[in-house]
Structures are given as structure tokens and as C-alpha cells.
Amino acid sequence: MSTIGFRPCDIEDSRVQWFDTENENDAHLSLPREEDSKAGKRNRSGKISPEAARVFNYWLEERKEDPAYEGTDAVWLNQKNKPYSARSLRYQLMSLQRAAGMNVEERENGWYMIRRGVGTDIINKEGDIITLMHQLRIDRYETAMRYVMTADQAADRYFSRR
């Protein structure tokens, strides 16, 4: 669900009921206040792309056939039938990168990398800090501004990490 920009702790806590993907063209995430990982504890929401909604709906159909998911609302379970943790999913992410021939030692890895990628994409395509704050469920303007940089700043950062 790369269009959501989950925080690592949200990976393990994610529940099927958070996702409204029935209408794939108007799909969204609704995180209830009591399950919000942020200290402010409030209801949070964000849009889900039609493509991500289709993939998620496909997964829901596959999930129905797997007895491991009977009686649980967890979105993803590992081989031990426990919800994936951010750490174990990071390991999976790095394994996929290695299999694709990517040098995982020379690049940032993990869920915050994906979250930052979502934020940067929103800013680059929309240029709207409010959209960024809503989609990534960010409360503080100063925090959201971390995703905004000039082209020169972005290039310098890119070259320094290669």
C-alpha cells in the first residue's frame, strides 16, 4: 500500500477494517482514533490509489482462502501466523532489493524510505503541503516541510547517497 505512506508501527497494527476499497476509484484508509499510532490520538484518513485498491481487493480474495487468516483482522501474517512487524517486513524489502541486484548497503531502506517517497511524489506532482499532510497523516507543518526541497537540494542529497 505504497500510496498510504504507513509508519513502520502501522504495518504491524494494520487491520482490514481500516481499508475502504469497495469503490476502487474512491478508496480510502480510515484509521480509528483508538488505533492511531501518533500521540495525539485522532481519527485519520487518506486516499488509496485505484491501482493499490485493486491489488488490495485481490489480496482480500486470496486472504479468504487462507485458513491462517480465519478469526483475525490483521492485514498481513508472517509464516508463523503472526502480524508482520516493521522489522520483518524491512528484511523482506531488503531481500527483494538484493534479488533485484540492488546494493542495499549503499541506500536507505525501510518503511520510512517508502513513506518519504510517497511524500516527495505528492509534493513533486501536486506541490500542495496540505495534501501531503493529510495523506501521510502529519500534524505539524514543520514535519511536512521535511519533504519539500529545492531541485538543487534534492540533487545534492541524491549524489551524496550514491
Automatic annotation (TrEMBL):
It comes from Halogeometricum luteum. This is Tyr recombinase domain-containing protein. InterPro entries: DNA_brk_join_enz, Integrase-like_cat_sf, Integrase_catalytic. Pfam families: Phage_integrase. It comes from the Archaea. Residues 1-160 form the Tyr recombinase domain. Keywords: DNA recombination.
